[in-house]
Amino acid sequence: MPSAAATGVTLTGALVRQGWSAEFFGETLVSTLIVVAVGVLIGLWAHSVVAQSSERARLIEELERTEAQLSEAHQRQGAADERERIARDIHDTLAQGFASIIVLAEAARAGLSDDPARSARQLRSIESTARENLAEARELVGSARQPGPGRAAAGTVAQTLRRTLDRFAEDTGLAVDADLADLECDQQTRIALLRCTQESLANVRKHARASTVGVVLVRRPYGVELEITDDGSGFVAGESTGFGLDGMRKRLAELGGRLTVTSSVGDGTRILATIPPASEVET
Length: 283
Fold this sequence. Notes:
Order of helices and strands: HHHHEHEEHEEH
CATH architecture of the domain at 155-283: 2-Layer Sandwich
Radius of gyration: 38 Å
Largest sheet: 5 strands, mixed
Strand order of the largest sheet: 1-2-3-5-4
Helix content: 55-70%
Oligomer: single chain
């Protein structure tokens, strides 16, 4: 508060000039100087308090503005995450189901004259797949209204995977060698294992040109492990940019797990999904 200080200094000087020739320079002058000094200090302190209050108000306003921006960004991120989750679920369920229907329909049409019995089985598979897709669509609509993990078929994870593998073998005619341990696991782990299996089998159907598929489900000390291999044409794993593999990685990462893809051209493919126990994820 510079004006108060200047006033105090001026007043003090005047008093001192008077005091050199009068008794006023005695105790009265000393008392007056003390009062003036205290007044100056109080003025400076008041100025500091006002300045700090203004700075505090500015900081509070800035903090509130930052919190509002963070809240808005969080809402946008939540909406983006939800869109990604729905897109991943659609890819893993409806899109794969429609792809299977197309393949089965093409095969059934080609075999109508030569192998009508096989075409009839394929038509039944088309009907079953379409019904499953309808159920999945209804489930996705329900989960969009009330977000949460998707639904897996009833039974243990081994039974769920076995049904998927049996359908795949029936539809494609490929040999499937499965060793599935009868494991107990939570719903989210079951869904992740099922989606990884469905995506891997879809890739085998579309790209691998394989004759045999192997599936192993086992519990290790570090968690549940699902391995899917094929003897197909393979690919360069580092150059794969498909939505399916990326979706599997993200789905497993949400549970603290990881996806390892091993493949090279002409040597088949190995997909390894690992999910730690739920208690480890929570901690």
